[in-house]
Design brief:
Two copies of one chain form a homodimer. Chain A is of the alpha/beta class. Chain A has 17 helices and 27 strands. Chain A has a six-stranded mixed β-sheet with strand order 12-11-10-13-15-14, with helices on both faces. In chain A, strands 26-25-16-17-18-27 form a six-stranded mixed β-sheet, sandwiched between helices. In chain A, a hairpin with a 4-residue loop joins strand 17 and strand 18 (398-403). The longest helix of chain A has 25 residues, at 522-546. Chain A starts with a strand and ends with a helix. In chain A, 53% of the residues are buried. Chains A and B meet through helix 3, strand 7, helix 4 and strand 14 of A and helix 3, strand 7, helix 4 and strand 14 of B.
Chain lengths: 674, 674
Amino acid sequence: MSDPLVLFMPSGKRGRFPVGTLVLDAARQLGVHVESVCGGRGMCGRCQIEVQEGHFAKHGVTSAEDHLSAFGAKEQRYAEKRELMPGRRLSCSASIQGDLVIDVPQDLVINAQVVRKSASGRTIERNPAIHMCYVEVDEPDMHRPLGDADRLIGALCRDWKFERLEIEFGVLAGLQSTLRKGNWAVTAAIHDEPRSGPPRIIAVWPGFKNEAYGIACDIGSTTIAMHLVSLLSGRIAASAGASNPQIRFGEDLMSRVSYVMMNPDGRADMTAAVRAAVNDLVARVCVDGGVNRDDILDTVFVGNPVMHHLFLGVDPTELGGAPFALAVSSAVHARAADVGLAVNANARLYTLPCIAGHVGADAAGAMLAEGPHRQDVMMLLVDVGTNAEIVLGNRARVVACSSPTGPAFEGAEISGGQRAAPGAIERVRIDPATLEPRYRVIGVEQWSDAPGFAEAAGSVGVTGICGSGIIEVIAEMFLAGIISEDGVINGKLSEKSARIVPHGRTFSYVLKAGESPISITQNDVRAIQLAKAALYAGVKLLMQKQGVAAVDKIRLAGAFGSFIDPKYAMVLGLIPDCDLDQVGAAGNSAGEGALMALLNRDYRREIETKVREIEKVETALEPDFQAFFVNAMALPNKVDPFPRLASAVTLPDRAGPSDGDALPSGRRGRRIRT
Amino acid sequence: MSDPLVLFMPSGKRGRFPVGTLVLDAARQLGVHVESVCGGRGMCGRCQIEVQEGHFAKHGVTSAEDHLSAFGAKEQRYAEKRELMPGRRLSCSASIQGDLVIDVPQDLVINAQVVRKSASGRTIERNPAIHMCYVEVDEPDMHRPLGDADRLIGALCRDWKFERLEIEFGVLAGLQSTLRKGNWAVTAAIHDEPRSGPPRIIAVWPGFKNEAYGIACDIGSTTIAMHLVSLLSGRIAASAGASNPQIRFGEDLMSRVSYVMMNPDGRADMTAAVRAAVNDLVARVCVDGGVNRDDILDTVFVGNPVMHHLFLGVDPTELGGAPFALAVSSAVHARAADVGLAVNANARLYTLPCIAGHVGADAAGAMLAEGPHRQDVMMLLVDVGTNAEIVLGNRARVVACSSPTGPAFEGAEISGGQRAAPGAIERVRIDPATLEPRYRVIGVEQWSDAPGFAEAAGSVGVTGICGSGIIEVIAEMFLAGIISEDGVINGKLSEKSARIVPHGRTFSYVLKAGESPISITQNDVRAIQLAKAALYAGVKLLMQKQGVAAVDKIRLAGAFGSFIDPKYAMVLGLIPDCDLDQVGAAGNSAGEGALMALLNRDYRREIETKVREIEKVETALEPDFQAFFVNAMALPNKVDPFPRLASAVTLPDRAGPSDGDALPSGRRGRRIRT
């Protein structure tokens, strides 16, 4: 009779083991990560498992319990001292007695409240780079005068099966007193990241220590977002966000690069600013999560190439012009202290790889989280900022590019534009019959035509229009026939509606009249057209590379993707035709990717490998890009049919000939780097 | 016909290679370290070889030249631009045409002026942990947007056959400008030390860089000695020494440990003091050698355990009492910046392993340099300081211990004692007939009885007596019959000579009369007896462990060993009987060991392995040690015959019964830790 078959979930790894094998040992032999801090002493409770009943019980009536050893003394003790939920067992105590399906609870479902609009309650299997290892160290022996560090390493190698173990220099100074405080029992934090060298002791605490934290951080041009996470349970202890203080040096990326080029201390100032902001967030999440900053042992960062470089202290000037050379594209392994992080003195730092000069570690993070490379279908992943980072692909092949959308989608370069903040118009509807608008303002519950709006809005005011509002107002203007397919505001409508008013040689649409009016000018429409054309041309280029005429799934990442209504994005032709059901916001998927890389080294290897394999497309070098760009100026787009869009909205019935208001080529030249 | 046989000297490695194989490639295949910075471009001249004529030319008349390709264009260019000594060839140009014996010039014979009284003109084969690699890096390519660091790594792996290469975080910030300054040709310094992780780029210079330095430093309790060495040629660019400023915290080791225990900032103060002194020496050797401190890329340190710990910033308190636990006994790999060294920002630091709580990295260095473990005969290696570090062994087995000699040998605890400095008496002769002394003073050419001494000594004065002077005066007093075998100054001689004078209940010997007299008191004799008994008892214990009654070779290391006359050491019974021809000073062999470990990683592996294998003997735990100690109080020693000593000196003919002046046991207890 063959040995019992054991299947571990959710990994699906399986193997046969002799009766009596500890579940923990079986898991390790299969490479299933089951945490254990105490090394099988029944102290930490980290190695809990659950047994799924019924499976494998095909022949005859057997219950799962029969296939696992009886509740042991170790488990009894643990359950009395702490708590062991019904059905849970300790895998360092329970042994295999028959076929089993074992659940390794991951305890981490990415929380919809934390990562906004996360598409799925995704479960991240854990296998962090930090191991907490409790160990009892031999006392000093004059007959065998090994140093304390050497005996600690010896004990860890003996009990935890490390073949080789180094000790971080910074740990040596405090080691002797820690060992004596713990009466020769200590818990060591071991950084085990083959890419950065042999496993290494980076911290030691006296006695038994059952906590270890990490931070995952997305450094955006506008916003920095951070999660503080237990490396032992995957629980998010706290999350926080803050504005990137580099905004004072320049709103968008290129103005920050310019600042560095123009100011001798520019790079150092911006590096200091972002590091200070990150440290402020560390302080905040530590307070919110009730966590000691010395317990933060690993840190993972993502960001676009300019943010990535500035954070690491690297001059981003080369990213400001062709050939857009990154200082480093592969993942960076360093010490958190190297960038001045106020966490454990020997904590580690990891940054995801950058894909290309304009497609950064943030895009790599988003890719890791959304996983186009894990799809059977063709998935489009778009992260819109000053540059759109675009990834298109499936299991077989992934292509990526960046397209220079400019800051219009973020409200910049728009006459009434502003960043998303209380007072900004974020939703717009226009009545096609009357051409009268109604809108919603951030910070105000009611729509503008609802009772009580004026009172409610009185306190915050209506100060401008943010990115999602701009998309909607222009899409609605198009759907209401106010602007043509070529983007021209129809001046003739001024006869029909007082909302259409002359503005120099062109016309504007008055979205909000009265005091501090907000209008959409012809230039605003042009700015959005340029931005959306750049985005769409990038998408189209990648579709051409992949040889597809449509995509199956679209994920819109970042703040932009979280607030924009996919329907309007499609009306404007920002994204290609696709079942609206299959279009979704990805939330802060870059940050989610950082979180995955923090909690599981395997994800680091996955994204490092995939980033090498991605085909990078540089729009500036692609002869077809200009043609795609010009064709994408129209609403939705001149050349692409959007059959599935019709089911979502009523497109205006007309054939609008171009009125010759072509773009000055100079303007286009400013945006599209060549 | 088989391929030509090629033998490389001095390594003796040999192999057969097809006709036409480049000598450089052949060397690499055999693991013979032939430096090459330019990667075979004929630029650096580091790969020079010489061909030994005549060998292998057995059959017929062939000259060595026929067996090597003709002088090539690359060599011609190099010889024109720089210089190529007659007979020298570039191994990146010369190819194998027949059997050859090839000399790889090491250019490094430890200079007798630099390391005093080095026993041999030892040749250190080089294989340093730092490689200088010139490389031409691909320019950035938008079609393949790899980072600059990634392309640098790619080029190095391609041209220099690294399988894996990391880049130090600190290099990233300046990398892009360096690559552009060098027009994509740079020289990278690569730290290749398998024990501390994968090979790693630690510095990059624009263009071709043909220099790289290291420092080897011995941190003694009294003196810090440093060599600045070219890692590419082995040439010692400068050497310097300075007093250890920790002396102001305590003369000897135990008083420094006490200082740490008594003062909250004691450890930090002493660490800062020794690091500042080391940095001063770095500044000095850089000036003397005309070397830029940024070109110092590797550093190796040795020191006794207390010095080692304080330099690394580790509290030495545990070394002050049983069980004398080291914080770390194995070799330490760190960054020079970790200890605040003002050298290249990413330079490395290596400390040799410590053997035991009282047998430090300095003893490991001395062992590496003198090589008892490479001897067929039984070699005794003694380094005398406040503790004597004693190593005894041969190829088969090495044993080591430390014995608490106290500071008497260094002039402390002696009434007229002082450190070796101008004005100190260092040599003494006593006429057995008249009991009149003559002596030599440091800084004065003449002996005290020679014409012109008074004038010459006038400027420096005669200020005291240093370690070697004390040894000699007591040995001479014994040989002249002034003191008995039991160490008692014979008061009866006061009738015969005015040099013998009463001093309390005992007598003194007046070495220098007149103003500022210098006398040897009974207590001085006792102090030296105690010290020498401790040393001899340690030696005897190791001889017992090895089961030998005599040793074949003795090396006396350190300043003490450099100045002491072996004959007098034997008269006093500091060392066991041995052919005087086989007794020699080892010079600063600890520092020489550091130098070896700096210039050749293989020596690091050798000493790391040997230190693990050494049998460590803790005198405090050895029941026989006390008996050996008591018996060793006599001059030369009560129980050991010194047959070979008789041929060197005329021993006084007498049988001196003990006069009962036994040592108070309390005093002994203070010295011998139990």
